[in-house]
């Protein structure tokens, strides 16, 4: 595909003095409310998820960043490539193609962290991947956009939202750091905070779903191709991320984590970049894609969580109903932990301690047959 944006009608320069259409005014008002509410809830959410992070495990991921490297490869290697292949496959218009490509080049979103928690994933790896992908986006976003738009006749200037990236890092690192400190000092209280965070995460997803439904009301029949791409794009990201993690011999826990991180993009960052780079008339044409992507990635996450919970319950019932008679006999023969520890200590003293009670005395000790032979000789 060759996107031609050289004409002024296709890609006009962004003008801040241009009057906004009525539809976009509604988008702007709801966006302000959505941004404030989501920022507060994400801060609380990341603080609560930070309470599940252990310093030693987090440091282990930093010292041996194999899982983080696989996640970054999925985020900035596979996702932009998938976006480019979707653009070619559906023969998108230049403006639509730019929206899909920008979404593919965005870093991972914080929505993946709560889904990782719900599927018993590696929270330390999830938060590390989200942080590292956001930092890497400072350089990888311009690089990926430049490489994939190089064959195009693109005269439209794309503005990277560095300020938005910095705000995302602040909202991510500071609450997580406080959560890690709370988990280190007060581990019992951190469990209560985790439950509050789960409720906050559910409310956040509800806000995202309702906002997406309201903003997309009356536009489900328009741009059906973009809606289809917004549905299959995160699904492909989840599948490809899981397969790559599996091929690199990651654990099942890490495979689930990398899968969720790969398909979950920072929709708010994409939305900000589109606002900075395109005019109001152009935004009306492509804004539904970003909103639909955010909505569908939340729905995909709920489906993955539901599938995992069903699999976990089925596996638990399978092991619980397997040979109950053998389990009962095994429980009768088993000893308590204190008895087992005492038994091991006695054996260690009998076999390893030096002196008269060592192994030599065991071999030289008199036996009943020796006593009988001595009595006969007498």
UniProtKB/TrEMBL annotation:
The keyword Transmembrane applies. Pfam families: SBF (PF01758). Its main location: membrane. Keywords: Membrane, Symport, Transmembrane, Transmembrane helix, Transport. The chain crosses the membrane at residues 32-53, 65-92, 98-118, 125-148, 160-184, 196-218, 224-247, 290-308. InterPro entries: BilAc:Na_symport/Acr3, Bilac:Na_transpt, Na+/solute_symporter_sf. It is found in: Membrane. It comes from the Eukaryota. Residues 318-335 have a biased composition (Basic residues). Residues 318-338, 350-378 are annotated as: Disordered. It is a multi-pass membrane protein. Belongs to the bile acid:sodium symporter (BASS) (TC 2.A.28) family. This is Sodium-dependent organic anion transporter.
